[in-house]
Design goal:
This protein is α+β, with helices and mostly antiparallel strands. Helices cover 20% and strands 35% of the residues. The two termini are 17 Å apart.
């Protein structure tokens, strides 16, 4: 008799489900480490299929924390009732990408930002070009560990009885 698949694996999102979920959700919670302990803040983000991008205020606690310690965690979740809860937790490292702060056309070329800026513009600005106010810059979060769950899949699993 084959052992039952672990429930955590059975309710994990596929790569396509994870990509679709992160593309559709608008707010994540980014945890950084400061001298006094963890700091969690809501952020808008873009997922490019391999990394998370956050357009952050450069004069924020999260920016200061990441400058000291690049280890971060991000949780993006959805659902109201237990049976519909789903989400993604990403642990990784944040690195500054491009000019700090990002001011726009006068910045040096940053081709690595074309993709994340297009994703951000589509997601949050109805496709209009992302504006640069001289107060934000990009954090590129490289995942070290990704955990996902979709409790809607529980109904298809055998009972634990």
């Amino acid at each position: 008799m084959m052992p039952a698949q672990r429930r955590a694996r059975a309710i994990a999102m596929t790569t396509a489900e994870l990509d679709s979920f992160l593309a559709g959700q608008r707010t994540g919670r980014l945890a950084t480490l400061g001298p006094g302990g963890p700091h969690v803040s809501p952020v808008w983000f873009a997922w490019d299929g391999a990394a998370l991008w956050v357009y952050s205020l450069t004069r924020s606690q999260r920016w200061t924390d990441v400058s000291r310690d690049p280890r971060v965690a991000v949780v993006v979740d959805a659902g109201e009732d237990y049976a519909e809860l789903r989400g993604v937790e990403i642990e990784g490292e944040a690195a500054v990408a491009g000019p700090v702060p990002r001011t726009g056309p006068q910045d040096p070329p940053a081709p690595e930002l074309a993709g994340p800026e297009a994703l951000m513009a589509r997601k949050y600005h109805q496709g209009a070009e992302l504006t640069h106010d001289g107060r934000h810059a990009w954090l590129h979060i490289t995942p070290r560990k990704i955990v996902s769950w979709d409790f809607r899949k529980l109904a298809a699993l055998p009972s634990r009885d």
